[in-house]
Design a protein that fits this description.
CATH topology of the largest domain: RNA Polymerase Alpha Subunit, Chain A, domain 2
Helix content: 10-25%
Order of helices and strands: HHEEEHEEEEEEEEEEEEEH
Structural class: alpha+beta
Radius of gyration: 36 Å
Largest sheet: 8 strands, mixed
Number of strands: 16
CATH class of the largest domain: Mainly Beta
Number of helices: 4
Strand content: 35-45%
CATH architecture of the largest domain: Beta Complex
Shape: elongated
Number of domains: 2
Length: 233
């Protein structure tokens, strides 16, 4: 028996090896490309969809996730971070839920490919309700008036603007300021447009209006006022 097994492998071993190589080449040549599969792990973007209009994302999940995809070799070259992404639907999201599972159905892939694994399997994000509030606008005046002139007042039109943002970021004590306005060269009353500067980067204007009118009232000092100032000095 031992001799039979020995002869089976060693007798005409060169011819047998040659036959094996021919069979391997034929198999690799004739097998359809769609029947040969490989796996590939790539890092893809995590896209958030359908965030409820009355909610704000205050803590974002990771920007990317890792997925392992199995596909025919001819498709594998098409599978990149530019063509595949994970879409997390927040349509039914709630403020009291922070952990969201990722499933294979969330991954967009070419037809014929299969998602084998996703890491992480869940992500954490935090939502808050959106709050709107009217805040006062104040003029951001810089510089000093020229000698002989005085600033009577600076009027803002409109005096308040509606802003909105996450509940925890909206404070009643906040004020909206205008972009800086230099009054050091002004010698007469003037009306101009100014941009709005919000008190917190998490807030935004509730309307498309991003400017206000600033009406600066300036008056020339009369001789009596000038004399009184000299006496005080």
């Amino acid at each position: 028996m031992r001799k039979f097994i020995k002869n089976l492998f060693l007798k005409n071993w060169g011819l047998k090896l040659f036959s094996f190589l021919i069979a391997l080449v034929l198999w690799l040549t004739l097998i359809p490309p769609e029947k040969t599969f490989s796996e590939k792990t790539i890092t893809i973007p995590l896209v958030l969809h359908n965030t409820p209009s009355e909610m704000e994302i205050v803590e974002k999940p990771p920007a990317t996730v890792d997925v392992t995809i199995r596909a025919p070799n001819r498709l594998l070259v098409q599978i990149t971070s530019a063509t595949v992404h994970a879409a997390l639907d927040l349509k039914n999201a709630r403020v009291d839920v922070e952990n969201y599972s990722l499933s294979k159905s969330m991954i967009t892939i070419p037809e014929g490919a299969e998602v084998k694994d996703i890491l992480p399997g869940q992500v954490k994000l935090k939502l808050e309700r959106t709050k709107e509030i009217l805040l006062d606008v104040e003029a951001n005046l810089t510089g000093e008036m020229q000698k002989g002139y005085k600033l009577i007042k600076a009027e803002i039109l409109p005096p308040q603007v509606l802003i909105k943002g996450p509940e925890s970021k909206v404070k009643d004590k906040y004020k909206v300021r205008t972009s800086p306005i230099d009054i050091s060269s002004l010698t007469h009353s003037i009306e101009l447009e100014a941009d709005l500067i919000l008190p917190n980067s998490d807030l935004r204007l509730a309307s498309s209006e991003t400017k206000v009118i600033v009406r600066i009232i300036i008056q020339e000092e009369n001789p009596e006022e000038k004399e009184n100032k000299k006496k005080k000095k």
